[in-house]
Amino acid sequence: MTVPFLDAHIHLWDLSRLRYPWLTPPFAEDGPNGSVAAIAQDFGAADYRAALARWQVVGAVHVDAGADPGDALAETAWLEEVAGASGLPDAIVAFAALDDPAIDGHLAAQARHPRVRGIRHIVNWHPDAGRSYTPRDLTRDDGWRAGFRKLADHGLSFDLQCYPDQMAGLVPLFADNPRVPVIVNHLGMPVLFDPDGIATWRAGLAALATLPQVSIKLSGLGFIARDWTQEQVRPFVRHAIDLFGTQRCMVASDAPTDMLFAPIDRYMDALHAILSDFGDGERRDLFGRNANRIYRVGLAL
């Protein structure tokens, strides 16, 4: 039986309205996720609702969609317009570069928008440049860490998209800033071809899970393997729940990005199947009530 779904991670974009360098040709196969040409077209609230038509969507959290950093505030303003017209998204995780010396002003400007709940600054760094999203490991940068500490002053959470071998080094920073909720994106993005990749992922998540303000999204199955199967991803989903518990895990579709690898219905079918043995209350938490609480959405679920 389908339960109400508050999607904890979606993206919308209007390619004529804002600049999205990663969605702009020419497209290459050698990036972390291969060519993104298949999703390089407008994706609005109506497109999202159509893609998730089977799944009793009651709300959604929009996470920064990779607009040009100079358009970060424009992206938030556009999303507020979209939400006013369509009812989605209910909450926004905006972009701000935490290593920017002017970060305090950027955070204040984002926080003035009524639906903004947090910030994402992608920090995936890998020794293999083909896997890396950033030219250096920002998580080791003193300026970036100083920017992270300012999130609490503005009542903002942080969406953490990193690789597993970066996690342990972040634990002291997060432990020293317990007022900043941290939400791990996409199951922590294990890198299966790394030596001891699964062990590194398990150790990194275990370290983060010791901090009560850290939660995790059950999403991004295509980042585990582009040709993923339910049997392949099930151990990752269940291990995350074993570590964080059913109160700190949130199901998310990652539409449309994960549509690079499979239709959204396939993701949702798999996640419902993997979580089918949980009780009704736990499933309602995983599919909506946790996201409602952690992102302070305010829906009656």
TrEMBL record:
Give the matching InterPro entries.
Amidohydro-rel, Metal_Hydrolase, Metallo-dep_Lactonases
Q: What is this protein called?
A: Amidohydrolase family protein
Q: Which GO MF terms are attached to this record?
A: hydrolase activity
Family of the protein in this entry:
Belongs to the metallo-dependent hydrolases superfamily.
Which keywords belong to this entry? Hydrolase
Q: Where is the Amidohydrolase-related domain?
A: 7-296
Q: Which PANTHER family match?
A: AMIDOHYDROLASE, BLL3371 PROTEIN
Q: Which Pfam families match?
A: Amidohydro_2
SUPFAM superfamilies given for it? Metallo-dependent hydrolases
